[in-house]
Amino acid sequence: MALGFADGTVRLGRLRFTDVGAEAVLEDPLRVGKKDVAVHRLDYKPSDNRSVLTVLKADGELFWDEVTRRENILTGKITTKLNQHALPYRPLAGRTGLPDFLLQNSQGDQLYLAWRDGVIQRYDLRDIQNPVVAETADFTPAPGVELTNLQFMFGDQSLVAGDSAGGVTAWFRVHRADAGTADQYRLVPAHKLDPHAAAVTVTDLSTRDKCLVTGTATGDIWLRHMTSQQVLGRVRASPTPHPDPLPASGERGQSGSLLPLRGEEGQDEGAAVRAVHITPKGDGLFVLDVTGHAYRWAVHNPHPETTWRTIFGKVWYEGYDRPGYTWQSSSGNDDFEPKFSLVPLAFGTFKATFYSMLFALPIALLAAIYTSQFLDPRLRAPIKSAVETMASLPSVVLGFIAALVLAPVVENWIVAVLTAFAVIPLSVLLAGYAWQVLPRKVMLRCEGWPRFLLLIGCVLGAGCLAQRLGGPVEAWLFGGDFKGWLNGRHGSGAPGNAILLWPLALLLVWFLQNRFLAGPIHRALTGRSRLTIGLVEFAKLMAILLATTALAGAAGALLAQWGVDPRGSLVGTYVQRNTLVVGFVMGFAVIPIIYTISEDALASVPEQLRSASLGCGATPWQTAIRVIVPVAASGIFSAVMIGLGRAVGETMIVVMAAGNTPLMDWNIFNGLRALSANIAVELPEAVKDSTLYRMLFLAALTLFVMTFVLNTVAEMIRQRFRKRAFQL
Question: Less Cβ around it within 10 Å: N or C end of the chain?
């Protein structure tokens, strides 16, 4: 502790408690500023690394002192020295009185001076040789309201202000580019707690968490939690004992004994509170009122930081520039705010599931259609068995491969990997058109294994082509540095806009040609040779692709001119263990499930339906898409839902390959943390019955509810598909 005296000296010391009472052990006086000028306000923050003492003298001199203490090993005497720095005290215009409050944070880089009318000055002391008044704010903007109490919350980041109207507000600094202050920080009223009906007279803060207790002029005493903004318990300081000092049923807290320090009898209504104190363990309250009566209440308050709002709503935490959804269960120091929002974890689950299904669904469903309707029956059984074998690979093995093998490869060849998403499907499509113009004898001779091997060779060749095109594509679209483009160091958002708009442009171009060109072209080709039809269809495909690319490029450039840039939202800074890698590997794990069930559903469609369609002149592709798939829709949908359930509940792949960062953005090149992965990571460190321990069980329950609702809706949709299939 530190005590200031009228002769201008300051004495440091400590309280020592013995069996017979308490005594103050004071060190030698330290002179601060001019002699015989009284100390008006002071604040002392001792620590193991550096102790800081700030003193305001009665003549307006303001000093910031670094305290150095040395102990004589032989005599045990402690010698204290002050390294003094004079601070510029600039009273506001029209003011003659000195500040009523002085607060110094434990780091020694922030100083606050405040007056009763609510005006506060904040000093930036990061450069102690050049201190500046960074900001002037008003904590009580309402007319006639005075500031009655001002204290630092545990951790010295938030200021808790009580006023004469009963208001209690927590303020802290946030960084804002438009703050208009000397250090680009601004004080904001982050938490406006429930107000009292009378003036706040005293406040005390917990030394364990973000709990605080406030007392009023009418004897009301409320136990609160700053972050969750909830009132944990209400009691009243009344000299006459009451059977139940907790009038609000269901509130946390227990009444204890009433301890009259003097025999005075007061009025039955509450007496003004003179002092309150939260015990160091947070399990009790000690209150002293103006009549001299003392009160003690036991407190049972195990989980004050959890409410439905803190779990599923936006909360403004210290050090953040705005309210948000945050999960952070631990930190390197003891004064941090536990952050238990499940929203980023649920978002991570949806994000991983979305990208893995986006990768797995087209491959699995198209493969099921191909093997069930077009592949030679002699090859169907071995290929299906090989795909089903993929499902036997353990998740931990896939996660290990993803983290240590696939993630570095994708990072080094990221543009080639992205190019492969376009090159491989286009190569297979062009190979299909080329197959149509082959002579019929060659086609018949290449049926079975040869055609399948040609398809595999086409895919492998397209992969090699994508690897070759990676460098030129990166130089053409992204200035030779794709990761630099993602970080916004160069280039505009036009390439990203064009790539994202390409599928929409393809749908538009395809619709227009189907609406206006397909009919005339079909009539013009009637009676033409097979080679002619194949070449015309190939030319039409190339025209569609060129028109799509031109339309997407023009739209992307136009949106970039309007300020639309996908960087910072859908794409952004590249992290090695990211959602793209998770999508690959989880998709690899989901594909066998979707493929197997879909292929069985397609193969179980009655053969007479297929024969009837072919007999009516439909092509095999038209038969598959317009007859077989609708009949098997219920089975296909069940396969998708089972694969989706596997993706939602996947743990080890996400733990090992996703980076375990509970972020809320759609950036495919950033990491994530899913509900299942969070349980696996946090549970070994969670203390039994702690808040974290219970939150992990709530996360498991949330995951169960999500999958239950999803499966229920899926079953309802499947039943509708099944009824339609029976009608066929």
Answer: C
